[in-house]
Amino acid sequence: MTAARSALSLKIVSECSVTKARCCKMTLPHHTVDTPVFMPVGTQGTLKGITPEQLEELDCQIMLGNTYHLGHRPGPKLINEIGGLHNFMQWKRCLLTDSGGFQMVSLVKLSEMTEEGVKFVSPHDNSVMMLTPEKSIEIQNDIGADIIMQLDDVVSSTTTGSRVVEAMHRSVRWLDRCIKAHKRPDKQNLFGIVQGGLDAELRTECAKEMVKRDVPGFAIGGLSGGEEKYHLWRMVTLSTDILPKHKPRYLMGVGFAVDLVVCVALGCDMFDCVYPTRTARFGRALVRSGQLQLKNQRYVADMRPIDADCKCLTCRNYTRAFLHSIVTHESVSCSLVSLHNIAFQMKLMSDIRQSIREDRFPQFIRDFFLEMYPTKKYPEWAVDALDSVGVHLNDEFIQ
Amino acid sequence: MMRFILSKVTGGARLGLLTELQSLSSSTTIETPMCMVYTRGGIAPFVTKDLLAKIANLPKVAHVPLNTLTRHHETAAKFENGLKDFAAMHDFIVYSCVQDSTEQMPVFQNDKTTIAVWGRAGKQKVTVDEYMRIQESVKPDWYQALCDSDANKDSSKKRLRKGVERTLNYLDECLEKHNKSERLKASALFGVLEGGFQRQDRVFSAKETAKRPVAGFCIEGFDNFGPSAEHFQVSDIKHLIKDLVMELPADKPRMMPGVMTPDNVLEAVNAGIDIFDTAYPYFATSRGCALVFNYSLENESSEENKMSIKESPKPFQIDLNDDRYTGDFSPVLEGCTCYVCQRYTKAYVHHLLVTTELLASILLMIHNFHHYFGFFEEIRQSLKAERLDRLYTKIHAQRPKTESSVTKDNDLG
Ligand SMILES: [Zn+2]
Ligand SMILES: [Zn+2]
Asked: Model pTM?
């Protein structure tokens, strides 16, 4: 196969000498992104209550937009007319859009997978519509994100049997259709998505087929639907073993702190999750030891900031007591807690990167887990996953 | 304690200076006429403080109505500087008051010993003791005495007289407690003038209040606040105000909450009012509107802007919910130098509104504050340059042609 034109270059800066973790510089049209990276989700062309400039100040390098939502409102034509989503929302750094398929299957009750595409009844005017791989790429070309995703045949991660086999093969076929339909490979990077449910053989086969297609990067999909973590890490690690080293690996829909640390160790570079911003709306603030429910009466006179070490606007100015007095009452509290939660994710990733660069990532992992689980009741899946890459949480003698 | 220096009077309009604002750096003074930054629970609505700080002509006074603070003042009490420490408002002076001009106050609920306010948990009745305890916790730079402002155009004479009497009694009780309070030593106490639309009561209230050792005056009790205040026309009462300010010493500031549109602000300035609130830009923001009236004496509005104001159901603003803005790539207001207009299009704000995204309110609040603060700066400059009449003419020319188009429209959601 001839190499496709690409608008992405990945330079591996450092590799962990123990785990599969690595630090890279991923150069995209709008910004050079340091990986491993967390990407906040700005579904409708905005991140909940935060301005793009504030996001830049938090050192956010790349964020997500949802094709399903943006394709409906304001619509691809309008976004294209104003010069892309970057221009529309005034975000200068990188963007990634999903294919719209996952959202469609999870949000639209009446949807059906056919070989041609996802057939669905529009929730807006009840007409029968079809999202084909070609259509998804066309919309994503109009939106103009640095990274775009193939349309894949989504099945719930708990589905088993022939449906999973069919979905895996179809996803490979759809990747070919997406590559063919992609009109701006010099400006946007199309990623393939490794599917295959929780079946190791299917995953392996899918990953191998995907790798034959010379796309700029790969995602590991279908693992954010509440499956057992026992399966998740096995599927992730077998995928990263097959995926080429010189291309980025994006683990879709995963973003809890523990999952991030483990999956970086398993060799993933990119992550996204709505959780940090969604949970902010309910007054939940993320900290290394878990999270604070700021609504809770225990914070009524708590004069400490959310996190004394955090440098975000919220922690520099406000006490837990003050935030307690406004959360869920004043909408500005949503912005304040979101700002902190994004800062938390960014700091976690930057600490991870630094420890990889200094080749002390295994120690970082042990410290991180001890802070999160002071009683050392570590989740079994995490212990197993980390064991598999040479980091032994329960071994007292290894420092 | 805060002092007021009157620098210039033109007709009834006053140019003044608030000085000796202890909490700000010693050199900081605040020019009047001015408007305060509305806050809820001790924080500006929608806009985080980094963005707020970027707004040009930002007034350094935070307006803190009691209702959104209920109960949390107890925590504020633990701080040396009260609410200022608690809510991280060190770069502001704090004005604390009874009723919230953006919300209709409870009607027919006040009595001799308690005043009703809408708190988060519903209606609350506040006694003088409780009120002063709250103020001690908040420790404002300046606050108003407890008052019975439940009055409007239709209030009976009897009701109005009662309001005046009660408010004077509350003032005396507040003054007594104020003078004994260690924590409120540096706070300025304003008396509140009541009397509805009754000239006699108004003059009596002014005369009596002026006899007390108050630092300034609040003129309230023309309407019950909230959205209906948008229909309140200062022109209906400007003679009343002129009469009552005759009774007030010139060297003390006068504030009037709930004055909304720019034409009304100018009427009130002309009648001798110095301090206003920002309920108007907050209302506009809450319903997805942008203030677009032209107050620049140098620049004419574009024809397009004139047209869109004319067609707007609300005076002086445009409704960005309107589908006509779906594909409008022009800034919210052509020529506006605010953070929002330098970056975003009407189409984007419209998109944020139809998708009910939080950023819509943030961007609109920034533009609307910027616009309103800029308008007050123009009032001050016009007063200095003796051209307030030109500003008045310019603003009045932008009023909707028929008053009925304003008053008919009651859906203020
Ligand atoms: Zn923080
Ligand atoms: Zn503007």
From this structure: 0.96
